[in-house]
């Protein structure tokens, strides 16, 4: 169970002050990243992402409209993790194959919970319940998009209280996804 997916009405970023003090499991930019798939990939192949339909298409479209110049698209992207074991933690179901990939272009490091949990679940629920109006909803979507593109973690302070863990404990095990448009398949890897 990923605790971030089930946030409260006050979900917001508790992160501020640049990248200092943020603990992450690893980085991908200019290094190796990992991807899980049910397709067999040819080692050495260069792969260019193409658009695929996603379950949360409206949230993805909202984020894409806010994409800063120079950042890779989420619509046409290879999604990756810092380690093979992080793939499942980031929400991917069981995959048949795991590969080490070399990004061949700009890589964005972001917290997909801004899109899935906050824009996709929390804000529509608040709007439907009448807790916020359309203008407040749209303002919060813009703020969430800015936080995603600034690589801020999604932290629900209300949920952390219920879980009885500190922000620091939470961030120490928080995972980020990485995405880019073009990759080279370096090698197949195993989870064991």
Descriptive account of the structure:
There is one protein chain. This protein is an alpha+beta fold. 32% of the residues lie in helices and 17% in strands. It contains six helices and seven strands. Strands 1-4-7-2 form a four-stranded antiparallel sheet, with no helix packed on it. Residues 1-25 have low confidence and may be disordered.
Summarize, please.
The protein is α+β, with helices and mostly antiparallel strands and 192 residues long.
Order of helices and strands: EEHEHEEHHHHEE
Count of DSSP E strands?
Answer: 7
Low-confidence stretches: 1-25
Q: What is the rounded Rg?
A: 17 Å
What structural class do you assign from the helix and strand content? Answer: alpha+beta
Q: Give the end-to-end Cα distance, rounded to a whole number of Å.
A: 22 Å
- Compute the number of helices: 6
Q: Indicate the proportion of strand residues.
A: 15-25%
Oligomerization status of the protein chains: single chain
Major β-sheet, in short? 4 strands, antiparallel
Helix content: 25-40%
Lateral strand order in the biggest sheet: 1-4-7-2
Task: Choose one word for the global shape.
Answer: globular
Mean pLDDT: 76
Describe the structure using short key phrases.
6 helices, four-stranded antiparallel β-sheet, 192 residues, three-stranded antiparallel β-sheet, 32% helix, alpha+beta
